[in-house]
Amino acid sequence: MWIPSISTERPAPGQNGPAVKAKRRNGRVIKFPIQLRVNITPNMNASLQRISRRLLLPEGILGRIALMQYLASQDREYREE
Q: What is each CA distance from 46 to 33, 43, 61, in whole angstroms?
């Protein structure tokens, strides 16, 4: 059973930067090279875990889907690549 990690460390100071593993692998460019760290409430975490189990998707992918939907509804210039 996959159990998501719960980190209690504070968010990194400063701006978001390259993801920890944002490197070229076998000559390929990583599709999502920027890492985004967010703080969520325990209730948000519990809900995210339930949805993650139901859809069999990692939390990071669900977060990316939610962000893409929000950006598409709020930003006229946002285009999915």
A: 27, 5, 16
As for how many domains the chain has, the answer is 1
In this structure, is residue 46 part of a structural domain?
yes
Expressed as residue numbers, the domain containing 64 is 42-74
Q: What is the pTM of this model?
A: 0.60
Encoded tokens for 61: 């992918």
d(CA 36, CA 70) in angstroms, rounded, equals 15
Q: Is residue 58 part of a domain?
A: yes
- The tens-digit pLDDT sequence of the chain (81 residues) is 445 555 556 655 555 656 555 555 577 778 888 888 999 999 999 999 999 999 999 999 999 999 999 999 999 888 765
**Rounded to whole angstroms, how far apart are CA atoms 53 and 1?**
9
